[in-house]
Amino acid sequence: MRSICLIFFLLLTASTALAVKAPPAPITVRQPDGKVITLYISGDEFARRIVAADGRTMEKGRDGFFRPAQERRPGPVVLRRQSSLSKPALKSASAASLPTDIRALVIPVSFEGTDFSVEDPATHFYEMLNSPGYSANGGTGSAKDYFEANMPGHTFTFDVSQPVRLSRPYSYYGENDISTPHVINYDMHLNDLIQEACTLAAASVDFQSYDTNGDGQVDYLFLFFAGYNEAESGDNDAIWPQSGNLSSEGIRINGVRIGLFGCSSELSGSDLGIEGGGIPSGIGTFCHEFGHYLGLVDLYDTDYGNGGMSSCLWGRLSLMDEGSYNNSGRTPPYFCAIDREQAGVISYRDAEAGTDISLSPTCLSGEVIRISTATPGEYYLLEYRTQNGWDAYIEGQGMAVYHVDRSDNVAGDITASVRWTTNLVNAYAMHQCADLVEAYPQASHISQIFFPGQAGITEFSAAGSPALIAWDGTPAGIKLTGISDNGETLTFRIEEDNTEVLLSPFSCHIEAWQNRALLEWRCGRPGTYTWALEWMPEESTQEPIRDTAYSQSYTFKGLSPNTDYVCSLHHVGSHSNGDTVTLRFTTDALSSPYPYVQLRRRYFPGDTVRMIINNITEPVSSVKWHIDGSLINSDIYVFRQEGTYRMEVTLEYSSDGSTETISRTVTVSEAINEKEDEQNR
Question: Span of the secretion signal (predicted)?
Fold first, then answer.
């Protein structure tokens, strides 16, 4: 039911929020009875999961104990969002669209029963966000230092108000909505937190002064709340760090609306010890959430494996992936080339054959090499990263290569361009739209993903692995050779690349029935290619049947039951052909003289049924399928939603034109229990 869920999500994008990803490191927790357990947290504000070391999903009870969560059959994940939160504009910002002097309001917020651990919260947060060279608690600079290093020509000021104390405990504001099965949780009362905090802060803050563009709303508001956050502590009732937009909610303070906002916690859970101690959070999460205000989208897998788990940018390379947690959140990385592009702080150099390139670190020059493809909106970005400054904790250096797709290419259920406007950039593993191209595809450590990197990869071309090609398989027409990194400068040469890439099919699989068979294969590269097929009965002396496929699957039709077949498959290139693979299969025998359609008693939303009829004993001139009265022209049908479906197949016999109709009723619903689930499958 992935496509249904995704359509529902797209309909609700006006009411979504953005969030920071959970940290990659495990946390150690002492249970109320003294037992120590290790937990792993994954997800963000809308998709969260806590697992034990043995892989069991855990949840925290009201008594404070973490226990295995109630197991449910995996169902369709409906991406419901809190109606009161809407996302910031997910479009590329530019330096020109932002004011030169950027100013934001920060409010420290404590709760009933939870105070700040620092004596003077206002001074603590002001210094962490604004002081040059901030070094308290292991810091390596302030948020102001970070953003001004990444966005030359802009100044950043983060005004911190006096702390306010809310009327309820944090568990009220951070309580998760778990009322509906398979609906992703969110903090139910976050709006109450924001409204109450702003109302209290208005006694000493002129909110109108933070509407610098005169649009009637505060430019940006951030709240630091006392205690821990859910992303790092695993506490269901804690608040998850996030960003959002409250423009439509009508929260007015001093005559201006509250619009874009972000929030995070005072304490970091990444260093949480078994005694429950913690240290003040670094600037990483704040910078991630503020990055959304600057126009940056999340680059981690925001649907957490719904379309396969994406590798994204290996976490550490981008503030908008897991880089906000580098050095326990104290040293987020420099903007990567994709971040720079969105923020409008990038200097492109288009790749041209016959050019010798010498790059200084992109963090200093802002310079990025762009390689275009034949597909508008699809291109490569190349940058030079070193382990200096804000990149001290990326754990590798060299040329980082990003394959960016903002085109109309289909990427899962939607186009690549739509993924950029719905914060799903890297949420489909088979087609990441901001894909880090690993120099060494089998990389086990981040140091191996760079060119030349620890793996010593000195060339990038269409014929290599990885391949410099578009998603449709078309070579870029150039190649990079002699890639070298001396620690201060990256050099390489750009040359023409006229190599034709010939592919070999592998992982071939044939599923055969009585009168048809399905062949599927892989080729190791994305894209659309031409494949030639030949097939015939193995003992036949006649010419084989020849056909062409443009995807990595093919259906053989008109086969005879209980017959051995042989087929061959090869890639058709522009000037020559790839290696030929020969396969054999045997069709099923007839099981009775009566035609029938084999179906299960029950299907689940998202299941696929193949349009196959068995026991056809005489030639037919046509086979027509109808589902609920609608003609189906495909070989497969996907049950998109629950309900009762009427399936009909009409056979027209060649001998006399007579027809025969077979009708079946199919129930599509969620399994009642695991036993029934197993029986139906």
Answer: 1-19
